[in-house]
Design goal:
The chain is of the alpha+beta class and 189 residues long. It folds into two domains: 71 residues, Winged helix-like DNA-binding domain superfamily/Winged helix DNA-binding domain (Arc Repressor Mutant, subunit A, Orthogonal Bundle), CATH 1.10.10.10; 99 residues, Winged helix-like DNA-binding domain superfamily/Winged helix DNA-binding domain (Arc Repressor Mutant, subunit A, Orthogonal Bundle), CATH 1.10.10.10. It has nine helices and five strands. A hairpin with a 2-residue loop joins strand 2 and strand 3.
């Protein structure tokens, strides 16, 4: 294996593993002896320092590890604290709308309205902190009830659920007809 390729392989392994890897294992992978492998890794670490890169290769006992330079931590903290951008697909928006207007609501009720399973959508909305469990229905099996959160109100710029747009009864009927047509098309397939 040529030297440039050996360096690329070692870099890929150390980056992917995220923890220290024994020098003997690294040597086996690049088909070199331990002494030569150690020399290659030390040269790579020196290059990183000379190029003022954001990462280091460090030696720990008989292992090597790739890690972030300590002077980069403040930048890592900035990015880690940056708010995550939520991506709401049509499926998530449909499910969220049902919960917002029908809350408290069970998964089964959501699925009856949508006509498909909603497990993934509900879990994603919980992860995004737009909905949460508000209790259990007093019925057999005691299914969970879901409702919207304060984060939902903030995200959609409303102070309370009363500020949500009211649904036009004619539009509700159009939606119901469309849903029935879709359900019938699925049955025909």
């Amino acid at each position: 294996m040529e030297r440039e390729r050996q360096e690329a392989v070692l870099e890929a392994i150390l980056f992917t593993m995220g923890e220290s890897v024994e020098i003997s294992r690294l040597a086996d992978v690049i088909e070199e002896d331990v002494k030569k492998t150690r020399a290659i890794l030390r040269e790579m670490a020196e290059k990183y320092k000379e190029q003022n890169r954001g990462i280091d290769i460090i030696e720990l006992d008989n292992s090597f590890q790739m890690c972030t330079k300590s002077e980069m931590y403040e930048y890592l903290i900035r990015i880690a604290k940056a708010p995550k951008k939520l991506v709401l697909t049509d499926t998530l928006l449909e499910t969220l709308s049902i919960i917002a207007y029908k809350q408290p609501v069970t998964r089964l009720e959501i699925e009856k309205i949508r006509g498909v399973s909603c497990d993934h959508a509900v879990n994603k909305l919980i992860e995004y902190n737009l909905i949460h469990e508000v209790g259990r229905l007093d019925a057999p099996g005691r299914p969970l009830l879901f409702g919207t959160t304060e984060q939902f109100l903030r995200s959609f710029g409303v102070k309370s659920l009363e500020e949500l747009p009211s649904l036009n009864p004619d539009q509700i009927e159009v939606f119901r007809e469309q849903a029935q047509e879709e359900a019938q098309m699925k049955l025909d397939v």
